[in-house]
């Protein structure tokens, strides 16, 4: 089996943390979203993002809340851990234009609005 | 004692995070799973995965939910921390074809479906 | 599209952890804050902070509690995860002079003062 | 004061994550355990473990559950954070042969067996 | 403004994780503690600690529980996240000789002693 073209693999430097993914992951699930448009062209010179010294594409956003977004593009399922605030993921879904998960995230963020620690005092 | 052949050690770059393991860990516990098939051959040229600049094999999946999967291949026990959503691990078990843990993960994920934060408001 | 000037991207080494961001993120949201003043000048020789061997600007503060601060400068929303103590974020907001979020953080920190683990014993 | 012999410092690559420790930490607390036997000899050629490209000794185990094990060897106290499943630490204590903490871990793991998320549904 | 003397910045390799701080942070808050004594001299040859290949000073202790200790030296406030066991921080405060926070940590650790997961079964 031949090795994959390195052009098919993309490393993103999101706010200082590196994520490895395939170009197709960014393109196929939500073709209209910002990530799909950023990496639609195969020519690196056409890409609108800076690259750091290791060749990773720079994105000035939170890495923590990007993680479930990227995982959604990989698997088609939105999965959020108990210690992650869904409001943070909602903010990123809006920024990247992943419209299909915004309603679910808005519902989760609404439920989450009452701070946990406040509850026992009320 | 002689050093182990470096061919016996494999570094995986799963979604941007590196994991170190032995080839035998990937092969023996679930011989039919995707990881076992990926690394069955001793010849690197036969491996179907790209390697990054450090020689780690690239996998376009979540590192967080891969962690308990790899640990299961090492120990034979499926262990999930309180702050990890079992749905994420289930997704990876299906992807890698680790069939033996899917029923347990489906049961855990089902229990987890009711979001924690929603509970106090009902 | 041309690549962005690398002078527009800034890497911060906050207490040992690297954060990648744009200069404009640090300048625009709170123009009077310490980070805005630190990076107001385009000339690196004018910047009052040391750089480490990779060129990242050194800041002797907690990286964990800086994360929601930087994210606030990016998005305009203050988002704190359940496992993060808001007192830590409050300390950083005061240090960096992000005055707009101090009242909200003081309120969250006040609520958080009663330690969680103490509650079931009272 | 002279610098310590670098031979006294050991870096372990446990499943992909690096841990720095002193040889004496591995040898003294539990002289019969696997780690003590691995690093008993001062000659690197006698050590039964592979080294990665940075000279760290490779161990094919979970880094997360190794952390409290190594800390126990340093301090003599077994300390587990709320978000860590004690079953994972128990598995490692058995693997490394740290017999002195196995009873406490078995007790903690037994208590932990009922999954947290299942509780509110019963 | 001139750049700071690099001698004023210190990188610590605590158990495998790097922390960046200023010498003055280590010296001023608790002048009698071990860290203050370690870095009191400006001459590196006088420092009693080994340095790793990047020049970071090696300390064979837990990085996780050192984090709130270092943050206390920076800010004067002891802040612990919900998912961190205060017993771990207490152990480090004793080791480094940060006497001013030991009573508060002993109180927090005492409260924490009853394991969370045990509670619902009693």
CATH domain class name of chain A? Alpha Beta
Overall form of chain A: globular
Gap from first CA to last CA of chain A: 62 Å
Number of domains of chain A: 1
Rg of chain A over CA atoms, rounded to whole Å, is 16 Å
Largest sheet of chain A: 3 strands, mixed
Number of helices of chain A: 5
Q: Flag low-confidence runs of chain A.
A: 115-122
Largest interface: A-B, 32 and 32 residues
Oligomeric nature of the chains: homopentamer
Mean pLDDT over the residues of chain A: 86
Tally the beta strands of chain A: 3
CATH architecture of chain A: 2-Layer Sandwich
Which structural class matches the secondary elements of chain A? alpha+beta
CATH fold name of chain A: Potassium Channel Kv1.1, Chain A
**Secondary-structure element order of chain A, as H and E?**
EEHHEHHH
Looking across the biggest beta sheet of chain A, what order are the strands in?
2-1-3
CATH superfamily of chain A: Potassium Channel Kv1.1, Chain A
Amount of beta strand of chain A: 5-15%
Q: How would you describe the overall organization of this protein?
A:
The structure is a homopentamer of 122-residue chains. Chain A is an alpha+beta fold and 122 residues long. Chain A is globular, with a radius of gyration of 16 Å. Chain A has a single domain (9-114), classed as Potassium Channel Kv1.1, Chain A (2-Layer Sandwich), CATH 3.30.710. Chain A has helices at residues 23-28, 34-38, 63-75, 86-96, 102-112; strands at residues 9-14, 17-22, 57-59. Residues 115-122 of chain A have low confidence and may be disordered. Chain A contains five helices and three strands, in the order E-E-H-H-E-H-H-H.
């Amino acid at each position: 089996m031949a090795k994959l073209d390195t052009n098919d693999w993309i490393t993103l430097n999101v706010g200082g943390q590196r994520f490895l993914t395939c170009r197709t992951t960014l393109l196929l699930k939500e073709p209209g979203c910002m990530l799909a448009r950023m990496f639609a062209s195969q020519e690196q010179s056409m890409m609108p993002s800076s690259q750091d010294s290791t060749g990773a594409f720079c994105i000035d956003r939170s890495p923590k809340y990007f993680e479930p977004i990227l995982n959604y593009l990989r698997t088609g399922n939105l999965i959020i851990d108990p210690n992650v605030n869904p409001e943070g993921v909602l903010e990123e879904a809006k920024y990247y234009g992943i419209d299909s998960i915004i309603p679910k995230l808005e519902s989760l963020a609404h439920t989450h609005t009452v701070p946990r620690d406040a509850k026992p005092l009320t």
